[in-house]
Amino acid sequence: MATDSSSSTLAHTIHLPSQPGQPVPVVAASGVSGSDFRNAIESSLFKQWLKNIQTQTGMLANGAMSLSQVLIQGVDMFGKRVGFLKFKADVVDKETGLKVPGIVFARGPAVAVLILLDSDGETYAVLTEQVRVPVGRLILELPAGMLDADKGDIVGAAVKEVEEETGIHLNLDDVIDLTAFLEPSTGCKIFPSPGGCDEDISLFLHRTEVDKGIIQQLQGKQMGLRDQGEFIKVHVAPYKNLWRMTADAKALMAIALYEMAKRDGLLPSLQD
């Protein structure tokens, strides 16, 4: 991808192989600083989006759509890296000349783990309860977290999030990638809100047998990284009730994948 830029006008030009001879201007909205603009166009979030639109299943792949401009609207830094990025992409349907909706909230990949604990003939699911400001509610959800796209260690990130949020230590070999059972054409990821957000989620499973005392120790345990604003309370609930007691999309998607994988015999060692 060839590029050139002009810091005085906060503009940047990209040249996409899928659009030869059709350079794409990237410009900053009013209020976006020079440093934020540079961070945005150099971020893994933006680079991954550019890569996605040019893949075999990308929106520019068959030549029916074209990208004419990108407007960088906002940047939130997580330390030295871009955590959240908001931009508007002008994507045009060539046949009609009409734009398709193109507002993007980019946050990148994430992981979540369905932890099932068998004890005294009952299967329990481990959940976390924490404040979710965007919806203004406390939410019961699976242990989960954002993946640092620059590192890309998906399984390691899943194990790390579980330990930080629940105190449970998992070995890398103890988790099963449920999203790996999806057809390759899906990218083996789940997109919970593709109409506005680029987030893709990898869902994992861990199932093991434990003493009843472990269930009691986990129930109500206070966890989370306080210096990062995490105030987490661990809950343990009967798995059979999980689908009715949580509004967490990650949990409901994990249940669906787990149950379908069991039905199709893809988890022979975990069959009930």
Automatic annotation (TrEMBL):
The lineage of its organism: Eukaryota, Viridiplantae, Streptophyta, Embryophyta, Tracheophyta. Its cofactor is Mg(2+). InterPro entries: NUDIX_hydrolase-like_dom_sf (IPR015797), NUDIX_hydrolase_dom (IPR000086). It comes from Forsythia ovata. PROSITE patterns: NUDIX. This is Nudix hydrolase 14. GO terms for molecular function: hydrolase activity. Keywords: Hydrolase. Residues 106-259 form the Nudix hydrolase domain.
